[in-house]
Design goal:
binds arginine; 477 residues; Fumarase C, Chain A, domain 2; Ribonucleotide Reductase Protein R1, domain 1; 3 domains; 19 helices
Length: 477
């Protein structure tokens, strides 16, 4: 047996011989679940308080556990705590170090299993992650709103099928993303309710013979409903075996990533010489090692690219759960890296967007040129006929004819003579030229959500109020 196969992990109890090195390496999780340390300690402190109230821990033992856990938490935060790979995971590391410091540590695991311990740690961690994601989403929304308001008068072509379709305010286009991110934010708040349930007390799978005060633990850890009532899991087997709350977060993060990816694509297009609508400051772009003229939007490209791993993490989690027998199986240890990676990736991407959006300027002249093609107002011309009583389909056909004539003559739609208009439909009068005035056309769109001049201003006011009303995190004041 090679050196690497020597037994290095000492075990006790029914295992007389520890696993070989390769098994230890294969099964360890400390290399990533150390991130659960503060959550694990919070869970342990609450559990200790509760078993103290049952008389299992004396006053003195509880105090020793509480203060030693506080010290360990501080050492971990400061980076001075020594992690021992031979203790496998974060939970065993902390408990064994606690027990080395105080013999009372050996009583901490009373009425608890690593299965409900890991479940509560993950839920506590995820609550914090969801708060952070909510805050980062808000930052992006605030930056989007600032950019939209700074260029409130700029009109660009709106596209369908990536073909110029109708003129829209640049702000209207940006605020489409406000809506998407707002729904993501709401999804976080909604999913939060299901994460915020305490699994401690479920034990390994079937609870405990001890009279655990689960409500007390839930209250101490903030697992409460809107009325402040404790929320505890109702089925011990479910509590230790499902990870659907993580799937939900990975699903929400996938949507956030997809929304960011589409925003990325828009910005990449807009900054290309073909569109040339925006300029992003140099700090967020990179040059080419070969072509001196290049200025690439790498941040947006990477943000689009990272969507792949976020969606992949969601698939990995679902695949992990599919077909698992009840209840806890070690497979579940594989959930963590997927969730941690998802959170880190999406948070970072949101943060970089919040910063980059503040470094964008518009090339107004280019936008004006692109939006000035009168053909973009062909639909408005149909509406002109509709107002005079023409059936929409017939009006559509008439304007189609005009577009064809203009195309054949090689002129713009508004360069056709009144005669030519009237030959197609005699209801056209001299005021048709008014239809081609872009600002006027924009002011005519007054329906809610239509992105005309007046609704855009209503939107600005709406978002200003809504974003201002958010307090930190997922709660709205
Ligand atoms: N590190 C384990 C995990 O992440 C903790 C639970 C271990 N439980 C067990 N019965 N081996 O899932």
């Amino acid at each position: 047996m090679g050196k690497s196969m020597q037994n290095v992990v000492s075990r006790s109890g029914r295992f007389s011989e520890g696993p070989a090195q390769i098994v230890a390496e294969f099964t360890e999780s400390i290399s990533f679940d150390y991130q659960l340390a503060q959550a694990d300690i919070a869970g342990s402190k609450a559990h200790a308080e509760m078993i103290h109230s049952l008389g299992i821990l004396s006053e003195e033992e509880n105090r020793a556990i509480q203060t030693n856990l506080d010290v360990i938490a501080r050492e971990i935060a400061e980076g001075t705590f020594v992690w021992r790979p031979e203790h496998e995971d974060v939970h065993m590391n902390i408990e064994s170090e606690l027990t080395r410091r105080t013999p009372a540590g050996a009583k901490l695991h009373t009425g608890r299993s690593r299965n409900d311990q890991v479940a509560v740690s993950m839920r506590l961690w995820q609550r914090g992650a969801m708060q952070s994601l909510g805050e980062s989403l808000l930052k992006v929304q605030k930056s989007l709103l600032a950019l939209a308001q700074a260029h409130s008068e700029v009109i660009i072509p709106g596209y369908t099928h990536l073909q110029r379709a109708q003129p829209v305010y640049f702000a209207h286009h940006l605020m489409a993303y406000m809506e998407m991110f707002d729904r993501d934010y709401e999804r976080l708040g909604d999913a939060y309710k299901r994460v915020n349930v305490c699994p401690l007390g479920a034990g390994a799978l079937a609870g405990s013979t001890l009279p655990l005060d689960r409500e007390k633990v839930a209250l101490l850890l903030g697992f409460v409903d809107a009325q402040g009532r404790p929320r505890v899991s109702r089925n011990s087997m479910d509590a230790v075996s499902d990870r659907d709350f993580m799937v939900e977060l990975c699903g929400i993060c996938s949507l956030i990533a997809v929304h960011l990816s589409r925003l990325s694509e828009d910005f990449i297009l807009w900054s290309s010489s073909e569109f040339d609508f925006i300029r992003v400051s140099d700090a967020f772009t990179t040059g080419s090692s070969l072509m001196p003229q290049k200025k690439n939007l790498d941040v947006a490209e990477l943000s689009r690219g990272k969507t792949g791993r976020v969606v992949g993490n969601l698939m990995a989690l679902l695949t992990l759960l599919k077909g698992l027998p009840m209840t806890y199986n070690r497979d579940l240890q594989e959930d963590k890296e997927r969730l941690f990676d998802t959170f880190k990736t999406v948070c970072l991407t949101l943060e970089i967007w919040a910063a980059m959006l503040r470094e964008v300027t518009l090339k107004k002249e280019r936008c004006r040129q692109a939006a000035s093609d009168p053909a973009l107002l062909a639909t408005d011309l149909v509406d002109y006929l509709v107002r005079k009583g023409v059936a929409f389909r017939l009006g559509h056909h008439a304007v189609g004819e005009l577009v064809a004539i203009a195309e054949k003559k090689g002129v713009l739609l508004n360069e056709l003579s009144l005669e030519e208009f009237r030959q197609v439909n005699p209801l056209f009068e001299a005021d048709i030229l008014e239809t081609f005035r872009l600002e006027k056309a924009m002011s005519k769109k007054t329906c809610v959500g239509s992105g005309g001049t007046q609704p855009i201003n209503t939107e600005f006011a709406h978002w200003q109020e809504r974003l201002g009303a958010y307090s930190i995190g997922l709660k709205k004041s």
